[in-house]
Amino acid sequence: MLTSKVFIKKTKRGSVMKIVREHYLRDDITCGSRVCGLCEHPKKQQKPPLEENPNNRSSLCKRQHYLLPDTNVVLHQIDVIEDPSVTNVIILQTVLDEVKHRSIPAFKRMKDMLGNPDKHFYTFCNEFNKDTYVEREPGESSNDRNDRAIRQATNWYRQHIRNVDIVLLTNDAENKTKATNAGLQAFTVYDYIKSLKDAGSLVDRLANPLTKVSIQGNKVLFPEHLHLSDIQRGIKSGRYHQGNVLASRENYLEANVSVGGLDKMVFIQGMINLNRAVDGDIVAIEMLPESEWSCPSSLVLVDREERQKEEDDLDENEKEVKNPVPEELRQPTGRVIGIIKRKWRQYCGILQPSLLKEATRHLFIAAEKKIPKIRIETRQAENLTGKRIIVAIDSWPRTSRYPLGHFVRELGNVGEKDTENEVLLLEHDVPHSNFSQAVLNCLPEMPWTITEEDEQKRTNLRHIDICSVDPPGCTDIDDALHCRRLENGNLEVGVHIADVSHFIRPNTPLDNEAASRGTTVYLSDMRIDMVPELLSSNLCSLRSNVDRFAFSVLWEVTDEAELVGKPKFMKSIIHSKASLTYAEAQMKIDDPNQHDTLTESLRNLNKLAKILKRRRIENGALSLASTEVRFYVDSETHDPIDVQVKEIRETNSMVEEFMLLANVTVAQKIKDEFPHCACLRRHPSPPPSNFDPLIKAAKSKGLTVDVSSGKALSDSLDKAQFPGNPFFNTMLRIMTTRCMMQAVYFCSGMLPEDEFVHYGLAAPIYTHYTSPIRRFSDIIVHRLLAASIGADATYPELLDKQKTQMVCNNLNYRHKMAQYAGRASVNLHTQLFFKERVQDEEGYVLFVRKNALQVLIPKYGLEGTLFLNAPEKGAASLFTYDEEENTQTAGDVVFHVFDPVTIQLFIDRSNVQNMKLSVKLVKPVVPGFSVPPAAYKQTTEPPTKKRKK
């Protein structure tokens, strides 16, 4: 049967087009039930998904039944639908299409359920069944038409299958009424779930349960959000601005909004002005008058854990942050007037213990400090105490100080390493599930061998003494190097990169999975691979003494590191002679008794690298600093038993210089060949205001930092030395790193060429080519480079700048999340290391705040917050803060930025959220505040705050 759909479309030029699409209807679409004797199921299908005897646990339904949810139930109650106890569900094509249109994450979760044979879910193509398809009537909204289509399909199932009932789940009152009037069984999802026997935690997973009860006091606390149409008109007129909310980690009453077209971020201060915006939301903001502009508070503020009920005033801390601000410190300030798009996700954390033993309404404290507390309803509070749980936000009414949400699932005990690892992976949105069978099917069969055809298409470099230099324990070896003397006296330098793109072909499940993951994530005790282990640690890894496919770049250089002629690019076969660690390579270079070919190659590479680095720095490249640590773990318990700052050797710099050279060389090549669709990497110049904390900190020591250009900044940092503090220059470079913008991937066709620059490297063009095992960006670059030398073919998506930019956007997000996850893993292992320790360590004041000192502990590469104000309410503070001088004073002791201090580290077990590492002052001694050295406290309890009974 054939029907037609007619659309009227307005083009960009203003003309009107009539579009007619043919729509085929069939009479052979099966119902998916084993009870049915009418449908002819395909022979290849073993059994229809819907069971013959579905389990009935509902007191509302008299007979066995299948569930048929509408779109909003799937969208908003997907946590309930995902539960293993919910089975035998019919998902209509109408519902699936609308879910895909409105929420890609929900759509993916639904597809996973449909593919799970244990769930017994079935997709019914009602839009192509002649008995269930409905035309949209004149004047009918698309939503009303879809509701009618759902009721039509429910009615068809009721008549088609006689032995099993069909239950329509809908929270739409009008839809439920019309279904009931038509003789259908229809229940709200709340009523149905609560009617189940032994529902257990399923009731707690219902979204929006608290919207059915009044919030205490019912007092309006927040301004009303403007309607989307008003927001759009305001943005068009320039009255409002659109941007992403970036909540502060240090002060829960503050956030910034990144607004396109504005040089500075817009500052938001106070809960009223934040107006229920959550970190990541896309919001509309209105600028405040300049007289009301403010600046970030010097306070480090966290929401109090003792708060159990709504207050008339949102927060007493509001008064603290609204003190008059000097005009020179003010920055553009605004307020949120509407939400354009929520970016809520599922959050990990714990329940805040309730004062009422039998309470069912509780506050949830997220592990991520940027997220407000969430009010949920659960009857399992006693069992969930001390557990990590996942909660989702459902809504945030104007009458509630906190957003409302629901319990999703339990993760495990607080403090257990496996649980905490799971938390940090979930919190940083790191895909870490096992690779699907479809992905694994893309891998080459083993044993893998090089064929004659491969030999003919590739350059044989197996005779060259190539080696790799990597950190200890590295199994995913991306790169290898060689350097040899040519007959004309010059040197040939080669960078050989794993040819991952040979194994990962475009538009395959393996390619799609790698593109989604974006990067390999390195934690302190584990690695989350971007590609399956067969590739990452075996076939693509450039291990020694085996033949491997590589993508090679070769240069001819003089002994003064001057490039001669053009670089050569080739797909090659290499045979690495050694897989060295940085330390092993350094020992070879330093040993005067070693003169073999490999050692001489390393020496020449090291000599050339020093020249290249000096030349880069002379051109304005920055040499910044960050503290990285390595944990040594117990072989049985896998708990950290020692920790050391990673030692940087000349060989680290040697490898880095040639990887940089390869990246710059390849960037120029692919940009020349594909000027509009090259995948490049840029590092924007920081706005001058970003350097204010650095300039202020250096000035406190009588030093001047010139930030007018990258070269000026680099020279200033080289000259910045402070007598008596050997760590001063390193701290200054760490602070400089904090001032930088994020480096990002982009498509060359989306920006003018003068914005390609990489500020930190002082390079006019740059890309990532050297780590395709662990970065998908490098795979894209390999494909472009292969196409440019005729070693591989292009494909449509590779040459589409819009699609390349979409890939880059995902890579930027994944790369940022991987960095944050890595830092969180270091913090976790540091906490595990100090679990049974109380230890004194040397540190340096990195920032002076109004109520705290932020201290850098170089040995562990971490920062601790030393709170200065008296913890007891009403007690006088021992410290006086001088904002102009940026100091804290207690009697005769004055704390400046960069001052050395001795601090005591231990785990504060009074913090139920995450028992985080706590910092106390040992030296200089401040009477009434400093604690005795750890040597005197080994037989006593750590100085923790007593719990209130």
Automatic annotation (TrEMBL):
SUPFAM superfamilies the record matches: Nucleic acid-binding proteins, PIN domain-like
UniProtKB keywords: Acetylation, Cytoplasm, Endonuclease, Exonuclease, Exosome, Hydrolase, Magnesium, Manganese, Nuclease, Nucleus, Phosphoprotein, RNA-binding, rRNA processing
Gene Ontology, cellular component aspect: cytoplasmic exosome (RNase complex); nuclear exosome (RNase complex); nucleolus; nucleoplasm
PANTHER family linked: EXOSOME COMPLEX EXONUCLEASE RRP44, RIBONUCLEASE
Segments forming domain RNB: 458-791
Necessary cofactors: Mn(2+); Mg(2+)
GO biological process, one term: rRNA processing
Biological source species: Littorina saxatilis
Oligomeric form and interacting partners: Component of the RNA exosome complex; within the complex interacts with EXOSC4, EXOSC7 and EXOSC9 of the exosome core complex (Exo-9). The catalytically inactive RNA exosome core complex (Exo-9) associates with the catalytic subunit EXOSC10/RRP6. Exo-9 may associate with DIS3 to form the nucleolar exosome complex, or DIS3L to form the cytoplasmic exosome complex. Exo-9 is formed by a hexameric base ring consisting of the heterodimers EXOSC4-EXOSC9, EXOSC5-EXOSC8 and EXOSC6-EXOSC7, and a cap ring consisting of EXOSC1, EXOSC2 and EXOSC3; DIS3 associates with the base ring of Exo-9.
Family under the similarity heading: Belongs to the RNR ribonuclease family.
Statement: the UniProt record of this protein carries the keyword Cytoplasm: yes
Pfam families: OB_Dis3 (PF17849), PIN_4 (PF13638), RNB (PF00773), Rrp44_CSD1 (PF17216), Rrp44_S1 (PF17215)
Gene3D superfamilies: 2.40.50.690, 2.40.50.700, 5'-nuclease, Nucleic acid-binding proteins
CDD domains with a match to the protein in the record: PIN_Rrp44-like (cd09862)
Residue spans crossing the bilayer: none
Annotated compartments: Cytoplasm; Nucleus, Nucleolus; Nucleus, Nucleoplasm
Name of protein: Exosome complex exonuclease RRP44
GO molecular function, one term: endonuclease activity
Residue span(s) of domain PIN: 65-177
